[in-house]
């Protein structure tokens, strides 16, 4: 299946932090792939900005190294022809006029803030002061969007001082994943699921985002943030919203985001005994790769794992718990949402047939796809014994090469910025509501001086997380690669 490519109009994209890790690993390769796919026209301009004194040629060399070496050389040259570099220090006043000279007044001009968050407000101010902001301006802000409610409010205010909300694109790259959007397609494009999507039929929902990597390379940032801020407040919260929200009247940015916001506002505060925090231990005998050794703080109390139970207090979900868990250095890299349905009300096959529940698993990564566990008769003579079998749909198998052609999250999100579609970006009030829910949890840990439970690297996390489920007569679905 070949996906349809609709070219965008020529645009100017300025990447602040154009020499940084994110720009080199994600943003520029994503732009290159969209260029090769024919979506970005040759007249587009991509301008890298950072403090380093580089020429256009230096910058193009730097980018060429990050691009897929198997690509056609003529494609690489054509892409690099769109690329410029302007050295600017966000704290200084020089360089802005030169940057302005590159920008066309008639085109969409997007400014991607791929720099440390403390520079976001200052960049917004300078764009305004140096006359670079106009009605066609869009700004793209990377995560983390604030460290807590207070800092997120300050950041929202700093951006709102110069830009309308319709010009601000807050990235949560999880929302750009094909399967995450498929969540909405599955829910609202099929008659099959929606009538069952409520507390009458759903026993509980599990959202798991498990990583095998540790914090190496991001030690200082991570130890300041922890799993609750780094993953739960944004990625897991967004998944929870998409699973729990009411159907919007139409697939329009504000209609979708209004419904997501209602979910966050309906979340009950989390009880302290409904949360488990963990911190991974060393995997190697030299003990140098445990969490505390890696961040260089032998007494760090930052969590690399969180499991929690929460409730969405509204008509649809009253009584159906949501269990969220995320952690680093776990047994497998796996992001999956499991919707666990209730048992049948009456067991007509007798107690020996056992009780079985349907589980709808939506795999976000790896091997994106959907599995529905259904109960059938075990084949063969000997009575009515029941077994669960998976109805499995891997998107890669079902869609063939089309699944890959769809592109990665950054490709989709950057093209949405250029097209002016904010559906997959977080609105200021969503971010604020999410911090409003997360802050008291973190404040509670700090007030109680809580220390995370240690867990073995390569495990499924601390045993207390299993206990969280067991207390409710439930269990986690396995973390499978
Ligand atoms: P990085 O590798 O440290 O790059 C920072 C970039 O900012 C460099 O290009 C640096 O170049 C430039 N810079 C620093 N100070 C500057 C200043 N005063 N004026 C202008 N440019 C300046 O950081 P990163 O990993 O790319 O992360 C960038 C942002 O994305 C951060 O907010 C991070 O939290 C977020 N993020 C990153 C990732 C990731 O995978 N890397 C994932 C999610 C979110 P010079 O030193 O030459 O100025």
What percent of residues are in strands?
Answer: 15-25%
Q: What is the count of structural domains? A: 2
Q: Determine the N-to-C terminus distance.
A: 26 Å
Average pLDDT for all residues:
92
Spatial strand sequence of the major β-sheet: 14-13-12-11-7-10-9-8-15
Stretches where pLDDT falls below 50 for ≥5 residues?
Answer: none
Give the number of DSSP strands: 15
Q: How many helices in DSSP terms?
A: 15
Q: Which H/E pattern describes the elements?
A: EHEHHEHEHEHEHEHHEHEEEEEEHHHHEH
Measured as a percent range, the helix fraction is: 25-40%
Shape, principal axes of CA atoms: globular
- What is the subunit arrangement here? single chain
Q: How does the major sheet shape up? A: 9 strands, mixed
Bound molecules: NADP nicotinamide-adenine-dinucleotide phosphate
Radius of gyration: 24 Å
CATH architecture descriptor text of the largest domain = 2-Layer Sandwich
CATH class assignment of the largest domain: Alpha Beta
Q: Predict the CATH topology of the largest domain.
A: Dihydrodipicolinate Reductase, domain 2
Structure classification: alpha/beta
Please tag this protein with its features.
globular; alpha/beta; binds NADP nicotinamide-adenine-dinucleotide phosphate; 9-stranded mixed beta sheet; Rossmann fold; 481 residues; single chain; 2 domains; Dihydrodipicolinate Reductase, domain 2; 6-stranded parallel beta sheet
